[in-house]
Amino acid sequence: MRAARDKPPASARSVALRLLARRDYSRSELAQRLRARGLGAADIEAALDDFERLGYLSDARYAQALVAHRVGHLGKRAIARDLRERGIAADDAKAALSPLADRDEIADATALWQRRFGQPPADERERARQVRFLVSRGFSAAIAFRVLRAAGARTDDLQD
Known about the structure:
The chain is mainly alpha-helical. It has three domains: 9-57, Arc Repressor Mutant, subunit A, CATH 1.10.10; 58-103; 105-159. It has helices spanning 12-22, 27-36, 41-54, 59-70, 76-85, 90-97, 105-116, 124-136, 141-159. Helix 2 packs antiparallel against helix 3, helix 7 packs across helix 9 (141-159) and helix 8 packs across helix 9. The longest helix is centred in the last third of the chain and has 19 residues, at 141-159. The N and C termini lie far apart (81 Å).
C-alpha cells in the first residue's frame, strides 16, 4: 500500500472533473480553483477547453441556473452583479437575464419585503432599515420606497 505522499499529483482534468461532479461552476471560477491547487495554466486551459467541448462545462448553463436560483430573492441588478463577479461573459449573462425582462420587480420586492418584515415601518429608523434591506438585495431605492408606500397605504386602508 502506497503512502499518501507517494501518490502522483492529480492532473488538472481529474481535479476539475471531481469539482464539477459536486456542482456546476463557471469557467473562470473553475480555473481559479485549479490555479489555487497549484496546477499549470496550460494544463488548466486544455482541461477546461476539453470539458466545454464535451458539454461538462458551460457558462451559459451556469448563468441560467444561477439566475433561476436567485430570482425572487434578489433584484435584477444584484443578479447581474453576481454573474459579472463569477466571470460570466456579457452575452451569456444577457441571455440568462432575458427572461427577467418581463418580470415585475415591484411584485418581487413586495413579496421579499412581506416575507422579511410583513408590516409597515413604525418610525423613520425602521423605514430606513427596510429600504436598506431591499436596496442591498438589488432593488432600486425608487422600488423600495414604492413598496413601503404601498404597504403603508394598505394598513391605512385597513384602519379606516
